[in-house]
Amino acid sequence: MAENNPPNPTPPHEETYSSPLTPEPELPVTQKTELTDEPSQQPETVTDTKGNPSQEEDVVAAEDSTEPSKEEQKEPNQNKIPQNLGSFKEESNRVTDLSESERTSLQQFKTLLTDSLKDDQQVSIYGVPLLEDERTDTILLKFLRARDFKPKESHTMLKNTLQWRKSFNIDALLDEDLGDDLDKVVFMHGFSREGHPVCYNVYGEFQNKELYEKTFGSEEKRERFLRWRVQFLEKSIRKLDFSPGGVNTLFQVNDLKNSPGPAKKELRVATKMALELLQDNYPEFVAKQVFINVPWWYLAFYTILNPFLTQRTKSKFVFAGTSKSPDTLFKYITPEQVPVQYGGLSVDFCDCNPDFSINDPTTEIPVKPSTKQTVEIAIYEKCIIVWELRVVGWEVSYSAEFKPDDKDAYGVIIQKATKMTPTDEPVVSNSFKVAELGKLFLTVDNPTVKKKRLLYRFKIKPYSD
């Protein structure tokens, strides 16, 4: 499994084309931030003044155009998915950052809580002992925000949650063995750009009839599913940092691809049960809810769920159809943190990919319709350079070439121009032993009318004979 360390809260690239590595002079490679961005190659060969094929390309700074492609402009405006209701910005949990009225509400809440506890009674929630240290402020602020900073209502909610946790026997649930049947349905993987642990919910797994029946086939099975879901969440949030300024919320990705439709009554009932339970007893634990691969029928399902959601909860929602799902994820999660099946580069650290991990940054480059994009990497000493590259959905040609600095030396075609289709492997990995100084050129030719996104990263290994 890849080492899963949270990234620096500041994204690794301040600009789209900045290098994932910023080498000091003594390092063996540098990468130009200027990249070729020119019309896709035509059948006729471009030649120089002597009639020879031209080896030079105009180099310009590529720009990320936000204008829709011609194909996107032609798409009919139907079956539109729900739009997110405003932008949600997570508030600070530092008492010094609160307004005067918010600090007053927090102090009143503390007083209510203190008065309600018996002498020497110790109460913990989410693994945090209440009223013992500053982490209590973070916990209480979650309940206050869920009740619009009304101390009495917040205290009632907290009391109800503590009572529910006791009746649900949360402490014993943590050690209960509920099996691993749902490991592919809900799993943690990587971190968002702001350092939130990312939780993936893959509803399409329930197309498996055997798994569906085993999970939702009876009321008893649905209750077991609910216990499993609470156990998973409880274990996940106990790894969060409840100290002031710490990351104490999750980033949720909900994959609706091949999800059973609303006709599945058992799933609908279980989802409603889980939603109510989690909203009542785990307030403000989700920083963002991103729904990807949203199908047309979700409009109806969302309408059913809508009355049960608070306005604050709905403000955290982001929706994306299938074609926009990778780009939507990349807005909030860097590609090296996104699993391969969702358009990123992250896979488990294993023998099949020993060179890169979830912590190796990726560079993202837009490739405009009918253009070619070339990445140039300068190499200053003998080494072995390894890289991996992908274009989500492919439909492009990819080539790799090494050109020595010595004008009398021959270039090396590492990968001849090859058409890549959506059915090809999602990620291409290559390596090259550099015995002389020169430059590595990675070229992607996009002949389509759709804007593409090129992802790549590289690293250097010591040279060996």
TrEMBL record:
Start-end of Acidic residues biased regions: 55-66
Coiled-coil region list: none
Chain positions covered by the region annotation Disordered: 1-102
PROSITE patterns linked: CRAL_TRIO (PS50191), GOLD (PS50866)
UniProt keyword list: Cell cycle, Cell division, Cytoplasm, Lipid-binding, Membrane, Transport
GO annotations of cellular component type: cytoplasm; membrane
One of the protein's GO biological processes: cell division
Pfam family, one: GOLD_PATL1_C
Superkingdom of source: Eukaryota
Location(s) in or outside the cell: Cytoplasm; Membrane
All copies of domain CRAL-TRIO, residue ranges: 175-344
Gene Ontology molecular function terms on file: lipid binding
SMART domains xref list: CRAL_TRIO_N, SEC14
Keyword Cell cycle: yes
CDD domains membership: SEC14
Predominant localisation class: cytoplasm
This protein's record includes keyword Transport: yes
Bias kind Basic and acidic residues: ranges: 67-77
Domain (GOLD): residue spans on this chain: 326-460
Segments of skewed composition (Pro residues): 1-11
Comp. bias (Polar residues): 30-54
Protein family: Belongs to the patellin family.
Official protein name in the record: Putative cellular retinaldehyde binding/alpha-tocopherol transport, GOLD domain, CRAL/TRIO
